[in-house]
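User: For a benchmark we're assembling, each entry needs the component sequences followed by a predicted structure for the full assembly. Here are entry 17's components. Please fill in the structure.
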Amino acid sequence: MLLTELLDPNIKVTLIKGKPGAGKTTLALELITSYGRGVYISTRVSEARLIHQFPHMRRMVEEGRLHGYALETGILFHDHRMASADNIIEAVSSTAMGIKSPMIILDSWDAIAKELSESERLKAERSIVAMAEAGDAKIIFISEEPELTTTDYMADAIVVLHDEEVEGRRYRRLELLKIRGMPIPSKYLPFTLIGARFKVLAYDLLKPEHELERAIREILDGGKEPKLTTGIAQLDDLLIRIISPGSMLPLELGPTVQLSQMLRVFAHWTISILALEGCIVMLPSMASSPYMLKLRSLLEGREELSRFKIGCMKEEQGCFKVDPTYPGITFRRIIETAKTMKNRTAGPCGIHVSMDFLESLYEPSSVLRHLTLLVAEAHGIPSYLLVDLRSSSKLVDHVEGMSPIYLRVVERDGGLFLYRVKPFSQLYAFSTGDDGSVELIPVM
Amino acid sequence: MDSFKARILRCVDRGLASIGDTAKRVVYWHLENTFKLKVDEIPDRPERLSHALHRMYGPAAMMLEANIIREIASEFDLRETPTDLAKAVRSARESIAKV
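Assistant: Structure for entry 17:
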Protein backbone atom coordinates (compact mmCIF):
# COMPACT_ATOMS: atom_id res chain seq x y z
CA MET A 1 0.00 0.00 0.00
CA LEU A 2 1.32 3.44 -0.98
CA LEU A 3 4.97 2.36 -1.17
CA THR A 4 4.11 0.11 -4.11
CA GLU A 5 2.35 2.97 -5.83
CA LEU A 6 5.24 5.38 -5.29
CA LEU A 7 7.64 2.77 -6.60
CA ASP A 8 5.65 2.39 -9.82
CA PRO A 9 8.01 2.81 -12.80
CA ASN A 10 5.86 5.66 -14.14
CA ILE A 11 6.37 7.72 -11.00
CA LYS A 12 9.71 9.37 -11.65
CA VAL A 13 9.51 12.45 -9.43
CA THR A 14 8.04 12.31 -5.94
CA LEU A 15 7.74 15.26 -3.59
CA ILE A 16 7.47 14.54 0.14
CA LYS A 17 6.38 17.53 2.21
CA GLY A 18 5.88 18.06 5.90
CA LYS A 19 7.02 19.94 8.96
CA PRO A 20 10.19 18.96 10.84
CA GLY A 21 9.70 15.61 12.57
CA ALA A 22 6.79 14.62 10.33
CA GLY A 23 8.62 11.54 9.03
CA LYS A 24 9.75 12.74 5.59
CA THR A 25 13.25 11.27 5.78
CA THR A 26 11.92 8.03 7.25
CA LEU A 27 9.45 7.65 4.36
CA ALA A 28 12.13 8.45 1.79
CA LEU A 29 14.51 5.91 3.32
CA GLU A 30 11.71 3.34 3.44
CA LEU A 31 11.22 3.89 -0.27
CA ILE A 32 14.91 3.53 -1.04
CA THR A 33 15.07 0.40 1.11
CA SER A 34 12.24 -1.14 -0.91
CA TYR A 35 13.68 0.11 -4.19
CA GLY A 36 17.07 -1.35 -3.33
CA ARG A 37 19.57 1.14 -4.70
CA GLY A 38 20.21 4.79 -4.90
CA VAL A 39 21.76 7.81 -3.28
CA TYR A 40 20.66 9.81 -0.28
CA ILE A 41 21.82 13.39 -0.71
CA SER A 42 21.43 15.30 2.51
CA THR A 43 21.72 19.02 3.02
CA ARG A 44 20.96 18.73 6.73
CA VAL A 45 22.07 15.46 8.24
CA SER A 46 25.55 14.03 8.41
CA GLU A 47 26.14 10.45 7.42
CA ALA A 48 27.03 9.46 10.99
CA ARG A 49 23.85 10.98 12.37
CA LEU A 50 21.71 9.37 9.73
CA ILE A 51 23.17 5.92 10.35
CA HIS A 52 22.68 6.43 14.08
CA GLN A 53 19.05 7.39 13.53
CA PHE A 54 18.30 4.70 10.94
CA PRO A 55 20.46 1.70 11.87
CA HIS A 56 18.79 -0.55 9.31
CA MET A 57 20.41 1.54 6.56
CA ARG A 58 23.86 0.67 7.89
CA ARG A 59 23.07 -3.03 7.87
CA MET A 60 21.81 -2.82 4.30
CA VAL A 61 24.98 -1.14 3.11
CA GLU A 62 27.40 -3.27 5.09
CA GLU A 63 25.74 -6.59 4.38
CA GLY A 64 25.19 -5.80 0.70
CA ARG A 65 21.59 -6.91 1.00
CA LEU A 66 20.28 -4.47 -1.54
CA HIS A 67 18.52 -7.09 -3.61
CA GLY A 68 21.82 -8.42 -4.86
CA TYR A 69 23.13 -5.19 -6.28
CA ALA A 70 26.85 -4.76 -6.13
CA LEU A 71 28.21 -2.56 -3.37
CA GLU A 72 29.29 0.17 -5.76
CA THR A 73 25.67 0.58 -6.79
CA GLY A 74 24.52 0.46 -3.20
CA ILE A 75 23.61 3.34 -1.02
CA LEU A 76 26.35 5.91 -0.81
CA PHE A 77 26.19 8.93 1.37
CA HIS A 78 26.75 12.36 0.00
CA ASP A 79 26.92 14.91 2.74
CA HIS A 80 26.04 18.22 1.15
CA ARG A 81 25.23 20.25 4.23
CA MET A 82 27.42 23.05 3.01
CA ALA A 83 26.28 22.63 -0.53
CA SER A 84 25.05 25.01 -3.16
CA ALA A 85 22.56 24.23 -5.89
CA ASP A 86 25.52 23.52 -8.20
CA ASN A 87 26.76 20.75 -5.90
CA ILE A 88 23.33 19.23 -5.63
CA ILE A 89 22.81 19.16 -9.38
CA GLU A 90 26.31 17.83 -9.87
CA ALA A 91 25.61 15.05 -7.36
CA VAL A 92 22.31 14.19 -9.08
CA SER A 93 23.83 14.12 -12.55
CA SER A 94 26.86 12.11 -11.42
CA THR A 95 24.57 9.57 -9.74
CA ALA A 96 22.25 9.37 -12.73
CA MET A 97 25.23 8.72 -14.98
CA GLY A 98 27.09 6.43 -12.57
CA ILE A 99 24.46 4.09 -11.11
CA LYS A 100 21.96 2.12 -13.14
CA SER A 101 18.39 3.38 -12.59
CA PRO A 102 19.06 4.78 -9.12
CA MET A 103 16.69 6.35 -6.66
CA ILE A 104 17.96 9.78 -5.66
CA ILE A 105 16.74 11.44 -2.49
CA LEU A 106 17.31 15.18 -2.07
CA ASP A 107 16.91 15.97 1.62
CA SER A 108 16.07 18.76 1.59
CA TRP A 109 15.96 20.41 -1.79
CA ASP A 110 14.18 23.55 -0.60
CA ALA A 111 17.02 24.34 1.82
CA ILE A 112 19.08 25.07 -1.29
CA ALA A 113 16.34 26.09 -3.68
CA LYS A 114 15.04 28.93 -1.54
CA GLU A 115 18.29 30.77 -2.21
CA LEU A 116 17.57 30.71 -5.95
CA SER A 117 15.24 33.04 -7.83
CA GLU A 118 11.96 31.47 -8.89
CA SER A 119 12.94 31.19 -12.54
CA GLU A 120 16.41 29.88 -11.69
CA ARG A 121 14.88 27.36 -9.32
CA LEU A 122 12.51 26.12 -11.99
CA LYS A 123 15.37 25.78 -14.45
CA ALA A 124 17.51 23.95 -11.88
CA GLU A 125 14.66 21.58 -11.07
CA ARG A 126 13.98 20.93 -14.73
CA SER A 127 17.63 20.21 -15.17
CA ILE A 128 17.67 17.79 -12.25
CA VAL A 129 14.58 16.01 -13.55
CA ALA A 130 15.96 15.84 -17.11
CA MET A 131 19.25 14.43 -15.82
CA ALA A 132 17.38 11.95 -13.64
CA GLU A 133 15.22 10.87 -16.58
CA ALA A 134 18.31 10.45 -18.75
CA GLY A 135 19.69 8.02 -16.18
CA ASP A 136 16.29 6.30 -15.71
CA ALA A 137 16.45 7.48 -12.11
CA LYS A 138 13.65 8.05 -9.64
CA ILE A 139 14.01 11.28 -7.76
CA ILE A 140 12.55 12.21 -4.41
CA PHE A 141 12.47 15.85 -3.37
CA ILE A 142 12.01 16.40 0.37
CA SER A 143 10.59 19.75 1.34
CA GLU A 144 9.51 21.64 4.43
CA GLU A 145 7.81 24.32 2.35
CA PRO A 146 4.05 24.08 2.92
CA GLU A 147 3.14 26.45 0.08
CA LEU A 148 3.00 25.53 -3.59
CA THR A 149 6.38 25.76 -5.28
CA THR A 150 7.68 24.93 -8.73
CA THR A 151 8.56 21.46 -7.43
CA ASP A 152 4.85 20.74 -6.88
CA TYR A 153 4.15 21.24 -10.57
CA MET A 154 6.96 18.96 -11.67
CA ALA A 155 6.25 16.08 -9.30
CA ASP A 156 4.43 12.95 -10.48
CA ALA A 157 3.45 12.23 -6.88
CA ILE A 158 3.04 14.54 -3.90
CA VAL A 159 2.82 13.21 -0.38
CA VAL A 160 2.25 15.49 2.61
CA LEU A 161 2.93 14.10 6.08
CA HIS A 162 0.90 15.47 8.99
CA ASP A 163 1.67 15.19 12.67
CA GLU A 164 -1.60 15.82 14.52
CA GLU A 165 -3.37 15.12 17.78
CA VAL A 166 -6.42 13.05 18.62
CA GLU A 167 -7.66 13.87 22.11
CA GLY A 168 -4.17 14.80 23.24
CA ARG A 169 -2.58 11.78 21.62
CA ARG A 170 -0.19 11.89 18.70
CA TYR A 171 -1.75 10.91 15.41
CA ARG A 172 0.12 10.76 12.12
CA ARG A 173 -1.46 10.75 8.72
CA LEU A 174 -0.31 10.93 5.17
CA GLU A 175 -2.09 12.99 2.56
CA LEU A 176 -1.74 11.84 -1.02
CA LEU A 177 -2.20 15.04 -3.00
CA LYS A 178 -1.29 13.69 -6.39
CA ILE A 179 -0.16 10.47 -8.00
CA ARG A 180 -0.05 10.83 -11.74
CA GLY A 181 -1.88 8.24 -13.80
CA MET A 182 -3.40 6.47 -10.83
CA PRO A 183 -6.66 6.89 -8.97
CA ILE A 184 -6.44 7.97 -5.34
CA PRO A 185 -8.87 5.68 -3.51
CA SER A 186 -8.10 7.16 -0.10
CA LYS A 187 -6.62 10.60 0.15
CA TYR A 188 -5.50 10.06 3.73
CA LEU A 189 -3.69 7.09 5.22
CA PRO A 190 -2.65 6.69 8.87
CA PHE A 191 0.96 5.78 9.58
CA THR A 192 3.43 5.43 12.39
CA LEU A 193 7.18 5.71 12.75
CA ILE A 194 8.27 2.69 14.68
CA GLY A 195 11.82 1.42 15.07
CA ALA A 196 12.96 4.19 12.66
CA ARG A 197 10.73 2.63 9.99
CA PHE A 198 7.72 4.05 8.19
CA LYS A 199 4.62 1.90 8.49
CA VAL A 200 1.26 2.54 6.90
CA LEU A 201 -1.41 1.32 9.29
CA ALA A 202 -3.98 -1.02 7.81
CA TYR A 203 -6.42 -3.34 9.51
CA ASP A 204 -7.92 -6.10 7.41
CA LEU A 205 -10.54 -8.20 9.06
CA LEU A 206 -10.75 -11.93 8.81
CA LYS A 207 -14.17 -13.26 7.90
CA PRO A 208 -16.19 -13.42 11.13
CA GLU A 209 -16.49 -17.21 11.14
CA HIS A 210 -12.71 -17.51 10.63
CA GLU A 211 -12.16 -15.14 13.56
CA LEU A 212 -14.38 -17.28 15.79
CA GLU A 213 -12.79 -20.53 14.64
CA ARG A 214 -9.37 -19.00 15.19
CA ALA A 215 -10.21 -18.11 18.81
CA ILE A 216 -11.31 -21.68 19.50
CA ARG A 217 -8.34 -23.17 17.69
CA GLU A 218 -5.77 -20.97 19.40
CA ILE A 219 -7.12 -21.16 22.92
CA LEU A 220 -9.03 -24.43 23.38
CA ASP A 221 -7.17 -26.59 20.90
CA GLY A 222 -3.77 -24.87 20.96
CA GLY A 223 -2.45 -26.95 23.83
CA LYS A 224 -1.15 -23.88 25.60
CA GLU A 225 -1.61 -23.01 29.24
CA PRO A 226 -4.90 -21.06 29.28
CA LYS A 227 -4.83 -17.41 30.29
CA LEU A 228 -7.18 -14.50 30.13
CA THR A 229 -6.64 -12.80 26.79
CA THR A 230 -8.17 -10.50 24.21
CA GLY A 231 -6.31 -12.24 21.42
CA ILE A 232 -4.02 -9.24 21.02
CA ALA A 233 -0.87 -9.30 23.13
CA GLN A 234 -0.48 -5.53 23.32
CA LEU A 235 -4.12 -5.08 24.37
CA ASP A 236 -3.58 -7.65 27.09
CA ASP A 237 -0.67 -5.50 28.31
CA LEU A 238 -2.89 -2.43 28.28
CA LEU A 239 -5.83 -4.10 29.94
CA ILE A 240 -5.57 -7.48 31.51
CA ARG A 241 -2.46 -6.80 33.53
CA ILE A 242 -4.23 -4.00 35.38
CA ILE A 243 -7.57 -5.68 36.08
CA SER A 244 -8.69 -8.27 38.61
CA PRO A 245 -11.87 -10.29 39.08
CA GLY A 246 -14.69 -7.87 39.93
CA SER A 247 -13.37 -5.19 37.58
CA MET A 248 -15.54 -3.33 35.14
CA LEU A 249 -14.13 -2.88 31.63
CA PRO A 250 -15.96 -0.28 29.56
CA LEU A 251 -15.15 -0.32 25.82
CA GLU A 252 -16.46 2.66 23.89
CA LEU A 253 -16.82 2.29 20.14
CA GLY A 254 -16.70 5.31 17.86
CA PRO A 255 -19.57 6.01 15.47
CA THR A 256 -18.06 4.28 12.45
CA VAL A 257 -16.53 1.31 14.27
CA GLN A 258 -18.26 -1.93 13.35
CA LEU A 259 -18.91 -4.42 16.12
CA SER A 260 -17.56 -7.09 13.80
CA GLN A 261 -14.21 -5.28 13.99
CA MET A 262 -14.19 -6.10 17.69
CA LEU A 263 -15.14 -9.71 17.13
CA ARG A 264 -11.61 -10.94 17.72
CA VAL A 265 -11.49 -9.26 21.12
CA PHE A 266 -14.94 -10.48 22.13
CA ALA A 267 -14.33 -14.05 20.90
CA HIS A 268 -10.90 -14.42 22.49
CA TRP A 269 -12.12 -12.88 25.73
CA THR A 270 -15.07 -15.29 25.87
CA ILE A 271 -13.17 -18.41 24.86
CA SER A 272 -10.23 -17.69 27.17
CA ILE A 273 -12.56 -17.44 30.17
CA LEU A 274 -14.15 -20.76 29.19
CA ALA A 275 -10.66 -22.27 28.79
CA LEU A 276 -9.90 -21.19 32.36
CA GLU A 277 -12.92 -23.29 33.41
CA GLY A 278 -14.90 -20.13 33.95
CA CYS A 279 -18.33 -19.03 32.81
CA ILE A 280 -19.72 -16.41 30.46
CA VAL A 281 -23.01 -14.55 30.65
CA MET A 282 -23.59 -12.35 27.67
CA LEU A 283 -26.12 -9.80 26.53
CA PRO A 284 -24.77 -8.89 23.12
CA SER A 285 -25.91 -6.10 20.86
CA MET A 286 -28.27 -6.80 17.99
CA ALA A 287 -25.30 -6.51 15.64
CA SER A 288 -23.01 -8.94 17.41
CA SER A 289 -25.71 -11.36 18.57
CA PRO A 290 -25.53 -13.54 15.40
CA TYR A 291 -21.76 -13.88 15.83
CA MET A 292 -22.07 -14.89 19.45
CA LEU A 293 -24.76 -17.43 18.61
CA LYS A 294 -22.44 -18.72 15.91
CA LEU A 295 -19.68 -18.98 18.51
CA ARG A 296 -21.99 -21.06 20.65
CA SER A 297 -22.81 -23.32 17.72
CA LEU A 298 -19.09 -23.84 17.07
CA LEU A 299 -18.79 -25.08 20.65
CA GLU A 300 -21.57 -27.63 20.09
CA GLY A 301 -20.68 -30.96 21.69
CA ARG A 302 -18.06 -29.45 23.96
CA GLU A 303 -18.30 -29.24 27.72
CA GLU A 304 -17.49 -25.52 27.61
CA LEU A 305 -20.88 -24.77 26.04
CA SER A 306 -22.64 -25.50 29.33
CA ARG A 307 -20.78 -22.54 30.86
CA PHE A 308 -21.74 -20.07 28.13
CA LYS A 309 -25.13 -18.35 28.50
CA ILE A 310 -26.53 -15.72 26.23
CA GLY A 311 -29.53 -13.39 26.54
CA CYS A 312 -32.36 -14.18 24.09
CA MET A 313 -35.78 -12.69 23.51
CA LYS A 314 -37.40 -16.13 23.90
CA GLU A 315 -36.73 -19.20 26.01
CA GLU A 316 -34.11 -21.37 24.33
CA GLN A 317 -31.57 -23.85 25.50
CA GLY A 318 -28.41 -22.11 26.67
CA CYS A 319 -30.20 -18.77 26.86
CA PHE A 320 -31.61 -16.67 29.64
CA LYS A 321 -34.68 -14.71 28.72
CA VAL A 322 -34.54 -10.97 28.26
CA ASP A 323 -37.63 -9.12 29.46
CA PRO A 324 -38.42 -6.46 26.85
CA THR A 325 -40.39 -4.33 29.31
CA TYR A 326 -38.74 -4.45 32.71
CA PRO A 327 -34.99 -3.85 32.87
CA GLY A 328 -34.90 -4.94 36.48
CA ILE A 329 -35.97 -8.45 35.50
CA THR A 330 -33.33 -8.69 32.76
CA PHE A 331 -30.55 -7.43 35.02
CA ARG A 332 -31.67 -9.79 37.80
CA ARG A 333 -31.48 -12.72 35.35
CA ILE A 334 -27.98 -11.73 34.30
CA ILE A 335 -26.80 -11.66 37.91
CA GLU A 336 -28.57 -14.88 38.90
CA THR A 337 -27.25 -16.73 35.86
CA ALA A 338 -23.73 -15.57 36.63
CA LYS A 339 -23.98 -16.48 40.33
CA THR A 340 -25.44 -19.91 39.58
CA MET A 341 -22.71 -20.75 37.09
CA LYS A 342 -19.97 -19.28 39.22
CA ASN A 343 -20.97 -21.66 42.04
CA ARG A 344 -20.52 -24.59 39.67
CA THR A 345 -17.23 -23.55 38.07
CA ALA A 346 -13.67 -23.22 39.26
CA GLY A 347 -12.56 -20.42 36.95
CA PRO A 348 -13.38 -16.74 36.56
CA CYS A 349 -16.76 -15.50 35.52
CA GLY A 350 -17.27 -12.97 32.75
CA ILE A 351 -20.32 -10.83 32.13
CA HIS A 352 -20.48 -9.04 28.81
CA VAL A 353 -23.29 -6.56 28.21
CA SER A 354 -23.92 -4.24 25.30
CA MET A 355 -25.37 -0.86 26.16
CA ASP A 356 -26.59 -0.65 22.57
CA PHE A 357 -28.99 -3.47 23.25
CA LEU A 358 -30.09 -2.25 26.67
CA GLU A 359 -30.69 1.32 25.48
CA SER A 360 -32.73 0.07 22.53
CA LEU A 361 -35.14 -1.58 24.98
CA TYR A 362 -35.18 0.59 28.08
CA GLU A 363 -35.04 4.20 29.24
CA PRO A 364 -31.45 5.41 29.75
CA SER A 365 -32.10 6.45 33.35
CA SER A 366 -33.42 3.02 34.10
CA VAL A 367 -30.47 1.31 32.38
CA LEU A 368 -28.09 3.46 34.38
CA ARG A 369 -29.71 2.59 37.68
CA HIS A 370 -29.59 -1.14 36.99
CA LEU A 371 -26.12 -0.99 35.52
CA THR A 372 -24.87 0.59 38.76
CA LEU A 373 -26.36 -2.36 40.66
CA LEU A 374 -24.84 -4.80 38.17
CA VAL A 375 -21.38 -3.28 38.71
CA ALA A 376 -21.75 -3.80 42.47
CA GLU A 377 -23.04 -7.34 42.08
CA ALA A 378 -20.34 -8.25 39.54
CA HIS A 379 -17.75 -7.04 42.02
CA GLY A 380 -19.23 -9.31 44.66
CA ILE A 381 -19.43 -12.48 42.56
CA PRO A 382 -16.55 -11.64 41.63
CA SER A 383 -16.91 -11.33 37.91
CA TYR A 384 -15.21 -9.44 35.08
CA LEU A 385 -17.80 -7.07 33.64
CA LEU A 386 -17.19 -6.09 30.02
CA VAL A 387 -19.47 -3.27 28.85
CA ASP A 388 -19.45 -2.18 25.24
CA LEU A 389 -21.15 1.05 24.29
CA ARG A 390 -21.35 3.49 21.42
CA SER A 391 -19.94 7.02 21.56
CA SER A 392 -23.48 8.17 20.83
CA SER A 393 -24.83 6.50 23.98
CA LYS A 394 -26.54 8.93 26.34
CA LEU A 395 -24.78 7.16 29.18
CA VAL A 396 -21.19 7.55 27.94
CA ASP A 397 -20.15 10.02 30.63
CA HIS A 398 -21.83 8.00 33.39
CA VAL A 399 -20.21 4.74 32.30
CA GLU A 400 -16.81 6.42 32.04
CA GLY A 401 -17.25 7.69 35.57
CA MET A 402 -18.03 4.21 36.90
CA SER A 403 -14.66 2.65 36.17
CA PRO A 404 -11.00 3.53 36.76
CA ILE A 405 -10.28 1.94 33.36
CA TYR A 406 -11.88 3.16 30.15
CA LEU A 407 -11.02 2.14 26.58
CA ARG A 408 -12.07 3.87 23.40
CA VAL A 409 -11.89 2.54 19.84
CA VAL A 410 -12.10 4.97 16.93
CA GLU A 411 -11.85 4.73 13.17
CA ARG A 412 -9.92 7.35 11.30
CA ASP A 413 -8.69 7.54 7.71
CA GLY A 414 -9.52 3.87 7.23
CA GLY A 415 -7.46 2.74 10.22
CA LEU A 416 -8.77 1.37 13.51
CA PHE A 417 -7.30 2.82 16.69
CA LEU A 418 -7.58 2.14 20.39
CA TYR A 419 -6.50 4.11 23.41
CA ARG A 420 -6.99 4.00 27.13
CA VAL A 421 -8.82 7.12 28.23
CA LYS A 422 -8.15 6.12 31.84
CA PRO A 423 -5.37 5.59 32.82
CA PHE A 424 -4.00 7.72 29.96
CA SER A 425 -2.30 5.90 27.13
CA GLN A 426 -1.04 6.85 23.71
CA LEU A 427 -2.88 5.92 20.52
CA TYR A 428 -2.48 2.36 19.23
CA ALA A 429 -3.42 1.13 15.78
CA PHE A 430 -4.82 -2.28 14.98
CA SER A 431 -2.63 -3.93 12.39
CA THR A 432 -3.07 -7.25 10.65
CA GLY A 433 -0.15 -9.51 9.85
CA ASP A 434 0.03 -11.76 6.78
CA ASP A 435 -1.02 -14.75 8.88
CA GLY A 436 -4.15 -12.96 10.11
CA SER A 437 -2.66 -12.21 13.51
CA VAL A 438 -3.54 -8.82 14.96
CA GLU A 439 -1.30 -6.50 16.88
CA LEU A 440 -1.60 -3.04 18.35
CA ILE A 441 1.10 -0.74 17.07
CA PRO A 442 1.85 2.47 18.97
CA VAL A 443 1.41 5.63 16.92
CA MET A 444 4.62 7.55 17.51
CA MET B 1 37.14 41.09 -33.92
CA ASP B 2 36.23 38.03 -31.84
CA SER B 3 37.91 34.79 -32.73
CA PHE B 4 35.88 31.96 -34.22
CA LYS B 5 36.33 29.96 -31.03
CA ALA B 6 35.01 32.76 -28.82
CA ARG B 7 31.94 33.22 -31.05
CA ILE B 8 31.15 29.48 -30.97
CA LEU B 9 31.58 29.40 -27.19
CA ARG B 10 29.19 32.32 -26.81
CA CYS B 11 26.66 30.40 -28.93
CA VAL B 12 27.06 27.37 -26.69
CA ASP B 13 26.58 29.52 -23.61
CA ARG B 14 23.46 31.20 -24.98
CA GLY B 15 22.12 27.81 -26.15
CA LEU B 16 22.46 26.41 -22.65
CA ALA B 17 20.70 29.41 -21.10
CA SER B 18 17.38 27.53 -20.98
CA ILE B 19 18.68 25.28 -18.20
CA GLY B 20 19.62 28.26 -16.04
CA ASP B 21 22.94 29.51 -14.70
CA THR B 22 23.08 26.91 -11.94
CA ALA B 23 22.64 23.90 -14.17
CA LYS B 24 24.87 25.49 -16.83
CA ARG B 25 27.76 25.69 -14.37
CA VAL B 26 27.23 22.01 -13.60
CA VAL B 27 27.28 21.13 -17.31
CA TYR B 28 30.62 22.94 -17.71
CA TRP B 29 31.91 21.20 -14.59
CA HIS B 30 30.94 17.78 -15.97
CA LEU B 31 32.47 18.59 -19.37
CA GLU B 32 35.81 19.25 -17.73
CA ASN B 33 35.76 16.63 -14.96
CA THR B 34 33.62 13.77 -16.18
CA PHE B 35 34.04 14.02 -19.96
CA LYS B 36 37.56 15.53 -19.96
CA LEU B 37 36.54 18.21 -22.43
CA LYS B 38 37.91 21.67 -21.69
CA VAL B 39 35.53 24.46 -22.58
CA ASP B 40 37.90 26.02 -25.13
CA GLU B 41 38.14 22.63 -26.90
CA ILE B 42 34.40 22.60 -27.68
CA PRO B 43 34.72 24.36 -31.09
CA ASP B 44 37.25 21.72 -32.17
CA ARG B 45 35.38 18.75 -30.71
CA PRO B 46 31.65 19.59 -30.90
CA GLU B 47 30.72 15.89 -31.12
CA ARG B 48 32.11 15.46 -27.59
CA LEU B 49 29.81 18.20 -26.32
CA SER B 50 26.90 16.51 -28.06
CA HIS B 51 27.81 13.16 -26.49
CA ALA B 52 28.16 14.70 -23.01
CA LEU B 53 24.81 16.48 -23.23
CA HIS B 54 23.13 13.23 -24.26
CA ARG B 55 24.74 11.39 -21.36
CA MET B 56 23.57 14.06 -18.93
CA TYR B 57 20.16 14.91 -20.32
CA GLY B 58 19.12 11.92 -22.42
CA PRO B 59 16.44 12.82 -24.99
CA ALA B 60 16.18 16.33 -23.49
CA ALA B 61 19.70 16.99 -24.84
CA MET B 62 18.21 17.32 -28.34
CA MET B 63 16.46 20.47 -27.23
CA LEU B 64 19.69 21.94 -25.85
CA GLU B 65 21.59 20.95 -28.98
CA ALA B 66 18.90 22.55 -31.15
CA ASN B 67 19.20 25.76 -29.11
CA ILE B 68 22.96 25.84 -29.66
CA ILE B 69 22.58 25.09 -33.41
CA ARG B 70 20.04 27.92 -33.72
CA GLU B 71 22.45 30.30 -31.98
CA ILE B 72 25.30 29.27 -34.34
CA ALA B 73 23.07 29.64 -37.44
CA SER B 74 22.10 33.11 -36.32
CA GLU B 75 25.62 34.19 -35.29
CA PHE B 76 27.17 33.08 -38.61
CA ASP B 77 24.17 33.88 -40.88
CA LEU B 78 23.90 30.32 -42.09
CA ARG B 79 21.25 30.00 -44.81
CA GLU B 80 20.25 26.47 -43.79
CA THR B 81 19.96 25.28 -40.25
CA PRO B 82 22.33 22.31 -39.80
CA THR B 83 20.94 19.02 -38.49
CA ASP B 84 23.55 18.37 -35.82
CA LEU B 85 26.06 20.26 -33.72
CA ALA B 86 29.19 19.03 -35.52
CA LYS B 87 27.71 20.07 -38.90
CA ALA B 88 26.74 23.45 -37.45
CA VAL B 89 30.30 24.18 -36.29
CA ARG B 90 31.66 22.96 -39.64
CA SER B 91 29.23 25.19 -41.58
CA ALA B 92 30.14 28.14 -39.35
CA ARG B 93 33.83 27.59 -40.03
CA GLU B 94 33.15 27.33 -43.80
CA SER B 95 31.11 30.52 -43.73
CA ILE B 96 34.09 32.40 -42.28
CA ALA B 97 36.46 30.90 -44.83
CA LYS B 98 34.22 32.19 -47.69
CA VAL B 99 34.43 35.70 -46.29
